Amino acid sequence: MAAYKRVLLKLSGEALMGEDPYGINRATIERMVSEVAEVSRMGVEMAIVIGGGNIFRGVAPAAAGMDRATADYMGMMATVMNSLALQDAFRHAGVQARVQSALNIEQVVEPYIRPKAMRYLEEGKVVIFAAGTGNPFFTTDTAAALRGSEIGAEIVLKATKVDGIYTADPKKDPTATRYETITFNEAISKNLEVMDATAFALCRDQKLPIRVFSINKPGALYRVVNGENEGTLVHM
Question: Which domains does the chain carry?
């Protein structure tokens, strides 16, 4: 029996790259989709917010010195591209998925409409939220906290390349240790950069816990959804 009925999964765009320098690695996206599909078939209602770093990385040199708002809108468009790729991968896996965008691009994806998103979730469809919050200066982490709060998710699952939150960057500091649990206030005060402070503060105010885990660890999402002690839990 799953520990949660409805969850919001935050995927970074970089997670889709696999070992590639940028773009979408097909084998990587298929593996992620199969893990989400397994959880969805258990009856867990799955919503996803995806970043755009894997695509934006390819144009980042050209964006240097660009107006911040313009660069952010470019990043939002990158998340729409990732969302469409995810939707297609779900279709190949036999899972119905719907993309809703915070920016109006109605020839490509439907706009974000909260009641419709809720209905899709109740019908067992995976809902992918694209274009962040639709506003510059806000990250897709903040979009995950916002959408998770709006749809009544029980937890935000932050999928990263690292298996939790550490006292320091484990790639740079071999003495870094992983937190099993940490409070929102500790995470904010220690400036732990696994999510931005706005996202942490919003989840804290809405009493919406966050579980940080590694998407590259086989079966990790399944274990998280079943309430096992995987990664790091951020709580009140």
Answer: 6-235 (3.40.1160.10)
